[in-house]
Design brief:
This protein is 42% helix and 15% strand. It is α+β, with helices and mostly antiparallel strands. The protein has a four-stranded antiparallel β-sheet with strand order 1-2-4-3, with helices on both faces. The structure holds flavin mononucleotide. Flavin mononucleotide binds next to strand 3.
Length: 197
């Protein structure tokens, strides 16, 4: 039996999936957010380090804490979104490796790497996990609106003070209003972006 997903699923996940900025008034439940994480967490990361940490901002109070750190063009779309994920990563991700790694020396060996190596691994794998999260959200029927237009340092002070967690990007989640999408921009063709050697 083929393990390929069907054509409709490919549309939902990729071909017809758009970046949304206007939202229908349907809430995103806690259960939906848990379902998204439950899928996203299985995506691969270096040594199974899984450095991403997610804060799902849904309450009015928490949205107000986020608001002052958003670029002007991102305020309305974020404040009106049913949920906004802060995709972050823990620079001390290796503290969890006793649970995550089958290799008994993994925690010690990662903790001894240079700060630059640790930062690179955390950012690389945390970004991958952010992408897995968006695909998972689409897979359970949600729309996404990713954003990097915000003050990372401000969000870190507000949400991650006293921790080793750093924000990477934001992603609004909800049910998008299909009637107000921007025209779809093109993508590079295979020959422009890829080589087979
Ligand atoms: C990491 C990242 C950061 C982005 N930052 C912003 C942003 O700050 N504000 C915004 O309106 N859109 C932002 N976008 C949305 C992109 O412009 C959009 O995904 C891209 O143009 C493709 O649009 P499409 O998915 O509708 O084809 C961002 C997307 C990503 C993945």
């Amino acid at each position: 039996m083929s393990r390929a997903v069907n054509d409709d699923a490919l549309d939902v996940l990729f071909r017809k999936a758009r970046t949304h900025r206007k939202w229908r008034a349907e809430p995103v439940t806690r259960q939906m957010l848990m379902a998204v994480y439950d899928l996203a967490r299985w995506g691969p990361t270096t040594n199974n380090t899984t450095p991403a940490r997610f804060v799902f901002v849904i309450s009015k109070e928490a949205k107000e804490r986020l608001k002052p750190h958003l670029n002007k063009g991102n305020v309305e779309q974020t404040m009106s979104a049913p949920a906004t994920a802060i995709i972050a990563y823990d620079t001390k991700f290796y503290e969890m490796l006793d649970k995550l790694s089958p290799n008994p020396g993994a925690k010690e060996s990662w903790s001894q790497k240079s700060p630059a190596e640790i930062a690179e691994a955390a950012f690389r794998n945390g970004s991958l996990q952010g992408a897995y999260m968006m695909i998972a959200a689409r897979a359970v029927g949600l729309d996404c609106g990713p954003m990097s237009g915000f003050d990372n340092a401000g969000v870190d002070r507000e949400f991650f003070a006293g921790t080793t967690i750093k924000s990477n990007f934001l992603c609004n989640l909800g049910y998008g209003d299909e009637t107000v999408l921007r025209p779809r921009a093109g993508r590079l063709d295979f020959d422009e972006a890829c080589r087979i050697l």
